[in-house]
Amino acid sequence: MGARTLRVHLAPQQLLAVVCRGGRPLDASTVRVAIDNPTGHWQPAVDALRAWLARAGQTGAGLPLELSLAGRWCQMLVAPWSDALLTEAGATRFLQTQLAALYGDAARGWSVAADDAPYGLPRLVCGIDATLLADLRAATGARCHAIEPAISVVLRTLMASRPQALAVVEAGRLTLAALTGDRITAIASQPCGAAWHGELVQAWQRWTLRTPELTLLAAPLTADIAVVDLSGANLRLARTAGADVLPPPFRLADSPFGTVQAPGAAEEAA
Q1: Which of 55, 70, 58, 57 is nearest to 30 (CA)?
Q2: What is the 3-state secondary structure (H, E, C) of 190-218?
Q3: Considering 20, 103, 135, 237, which has the largest number of Cβ atoms within 10 A of its Cβ?
Q4: Mean of the pLDDT values across residues 24-30?
Q5: Helix axis angle, 42-54 relative to 130-140, nearest 10°?
Q6: C-alpha dihedral (197, 202, 207, 210), degrees to nearest 10
Q7: What is the mean pLDDT of residues 124-146?
Q8: Where along the chain do its domains lie?
Q9: Which helix (H) or strand (E) holds 158?
Q10: What is the pLDDT, as a whole number, of residue 264?
């Protein structure tokens, strides 16, 4: 059956939590906590997480914790191979330089991590504010054994269905990723509105046109693009209803954080 864990997703205006067994969400165990955070800064969200974890009788109390973060706080890119990656110090400097080229000099102070792609291949890189990461570790304590971007959790839970690409929808943000096997080999993020269903196709077409190696993914008859909605706007939307909304090659996939089943059910305020 597998061990039970508590999987939590932290975003500027919401916290999602679900109890998993063997990596699969248990039915009717999802909780959504609304966070009053109009500016979107990470501090109110971390405070809400700390308060929720300290609450007596909360979902998954005492279970090992896996924490995923909204894309707003996890800046990502695919970096080219460099021999600098062969040493820890050299890798940190090289990856921070790559992030700074895209996100500005503030990235030189971020905590960075990369995937374990084989020698000579590009690496998926994630940068996160070092103070945010330290506060998250302090808030979650020893029970937390993973802090990672939401798209990493989405990828891991969808691998059995073998999509060729992913689209992760968050409030105000759309992240697109192309896959080779179980690895992300291209990634891009952009703003999106609440009516993201109408923006998805054009966003994908623009990205694939700018990136010639993604041409195959623009063909509806050959591509398979899994879409996961973490925006909070459609938590109660049944998968079958969503499938009617998305045109090929897109398909609405199950959220790794389960579903809040009915209005008011398992929904709290921070």
Answers
A1: 58
A2: EECCCCCHHHHHHHHHHHHHHCHHHHHHH
A3: 20
A4: 93
A5: 10
A6: 180
A7: 97
A8: 4-70+132-149+263-269, 73-128, 152-252
A9: helix 150-158
A10: 42
Are 70 and 150 a contacting pair, CB within 8 Å? Answer: yes
Rounded Cα gap, residues 228 and 24, in angstroms: 15
Long-range contacts for 55-62 (Cβ within 8 Å, ≥24 apart)? Answer: 58/31, 59/6, 59/17, 59/18, 59/19, 59/29, 59/31, 60/4, 60/5, 60/6, 60/17, 60/19, 60/29, 62/143
What dotted CATH number matches 4-70+132-149+263-269? 3.30.420.40
Token reading at 43: 């501090």
- pLDDT digit string, tens, across residues 234-248: 544 444 444 457 888
Phi and psi at residue 92, to the nearest 5°? -60, -45
Query: Using CA atoms, how far apart are residues 194 and 237, in angstroms rounded to an integer?
Result: 14
Q: Could you tell me the pLDDT band of residue 8, with boundaries at 50, 70 and 90?
A: very high
DSSP annotation of 147: E
Tell me which architecture the domain covering 152-252 has in CATH. 2-Layer Sandwich (3.30)
Q: What is the pTM of this model?
A: 0.91
Q: One-letter amino acid identity for 212?
A: P
Residue 265: per-residue pLDDT: 43
Q: Are strands 24-25 and 14-21 parallel, antiparallel or unpaired?
A: antiparallel
Round to the nearest angstrom and report the end-to-end CA distance of the chain. 33
Q: Do domains 4-70+132-149+263-269 and 152-252 have the same CATH topology?
A: yes
